[in-house]
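agent> fetching stored inputs for the manganese (II) ion docking request
agent> found them:
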Amino acid sequence: MSRINLKKAAAAIKKYNRFLISAHTSPEGDALGSELGLYYLLKKLGKQAVIVNEDPLPSEYFFLPGKESIKLYRPALKDINFDCAVILDCTDLGRTGEVSKLINNTLSVVNIDHHISNKKFGTVDWVDPKSSSASEMVFRLYKEMHVPFDADAALLLYVGMMTDTGSFRYSNTSVFTHKAAGELLRFGLDVPLVYRNIYEKIPFTDIQLLIKTLLHIHRTSGGKIAWVELPARLLRHKKLSFDLTDHILSFIRGIKDIQAAALFKENLGVKNEIRVNLRSTGLVDVNKVAQAFGGGGHRTASGCTVSGKLADVRKKVIAKIRQDLK
Ligand SMILES: [Mn+2]
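agent> prediction call returned; pasting tokens
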């Protein structure tokens, strides 16, 4: 099934000429790696393409090639006459934020995603939950369309696969993921430097925030659930350009006997809106938990945005996690 839809996605890319590329808000390695990786593929095919995101690049991704071609959403972009939109790493169109306003009914939409909770919103839906990442799917698109990789494309797709697999440690890491990564490494990637750029250049003020946050890890349900809150008053001191969520979650997910970890973050821009990020060590299905609140993702990593006060949202979400504890 997935193979047929890969062919359909490739056929759409062949057919159209003026592409809008986007991914989810708060873009991370996979969103950026797959967007830019696809951008280079389209350029090699002689197509026009514009990447539009709602949010700017976090500073740890400033080293990515092609980053200057990413545009931030503004209403004037409606005047560009696209004939196809390729949406990457999104369970639904709403995950692109404001960018969804650029997509009208006449535009063909190619939905390329690896989340099990994908809502199949495209004209073509290529959804493959067995893929480690959207970047791994773009890797397959290069193969399918016989477009050769170069050093830039190799770096971008490697970054997407590396970040979404927790550096090739999570359960979504497959034989194919390693084979693909191995093939990309032939282009002379400096792996330690890639890792250092993404994970080891945390601004000192953010390390201080991380320490403050970790002082307030809470456990519940006999130590099976751990959670932390990031209230707005803490976030105001944070370097907005740097995404700490992953660092905090991978830390609390590693606590002995934990089955699920949750991070509750107050949205600085919207009052009473809480972003919830969930991780599971494998026993609890946090995709199901996130879906109960209108979000989604994967069995072991998911997220949702919930309206309400920080403490109320936290109680509701934790009650839901509790139902699935083993
Ligand atoms: Mn992804």
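agent> quick read of the result: Residues 30, 89, 114, 133-134, 164 surround manganese (II) ion (CB under 6 Å).
agent> awaiting further instructions
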